[in-house]
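Please, structure for the following, as tokens.
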Amino acid sequence: MRGWLGCVIAAGLWSALSALSNDVRAEGIYTCIDAKGHRLTSDRPIIDCIDREQTELSPTGQVVRRIGPSLTAAERAAQDEKARRAAEERSREVEEKRRDRVLLARYPDKLTHDKERNQALAAVDDVIRSALQRIGELHADRKKLDTELEFYSKDPAKVPLQLKHRLADNEQELAAQQRFVANQDDEKKRINAKYDKELVRLRSIWATRSSSSAAR
């Protein structure tokens, strides 16, 4: 039974080694140092050296290629993971360079970047001014409503339903406009943060461009 199992294992190892070599040349000479320190030589990949590097020589003794050791499943998985991470890093670097080119084309200098930042902030300021104007109108309307309300100060139960609705509508719209202004203030902070982050990257890009131009 053990002999049969040993044959199966040997056959599996031999298949793995054959997969590594892919193209066994009849005239090739394979050599390696086994686990006991002995140099082995054969006309085909050596099964006793499946876990270590083998060298294929031509009939004249020239090195044709070196065959690496067969990897375990865990080693192959680690190697694949390393390759995947390297590929991701290369992809990230390519994407970063692409973004840098786009950024430089859009903002060749700080003046251009500042101009676009100011335009973006000015657009939000215009919206805020409109909202503040509406808030002023609502405050004026509320004063008028309060004047009407004073007429019923001695008997609040007689306040007309329509006046109550107008007061409620005024309060709701005023609160909405105030929330809108607060949101626009947050938008200005977001815009500034975006342009600040871009500026940090742009300074590096501009410096690299200047260095490259000076070196020419």
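The chain is about 70% helix and 10% strand. The first helix runs from residue 2 to 21.
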